[in-house]
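Q&A log
Question type: sequence-to-structure
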Amino acid sequence: MLGDDYFGRVFSDPKNPEVVYVMQTSTYKSTDGGRNFAAWKGTPSGEDDHVLWIAPEDTSRIIMGTDQGAVITLDGGKIWNTWYNQPTGQFYRVSRIASFRTVSTHRSRIPAPSRSPIARTTA
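Response status: OK
Response body:
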């Protein structure tokens, strides 16, 4: 994987280095080592694709993380499940302080009491 933490991440097929994916407002795929790309999944108007996992033992199994959640294909991208059949969400950063852990999303900050003994402080 190459690229920044948000956009432009590059992933290659673990069995075929000629197959390369670039995550953007849609996902682009190259089958010639990155010389040429075509839109593979999504529309250039913006799903905001961010991360890709390709099963090393069966590269037709792929999980993609997008702004809307995660989607899965078992056939190399011909058919994808929908975002609506699993509870997924987008988190930009997770951090914890003192006796609270704070979850930051692109829309809100949610403080919650920590139950972790690591997060506890002594007075």
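Response note: Confidence is low (pLDDT under 50) at residues 108-123.
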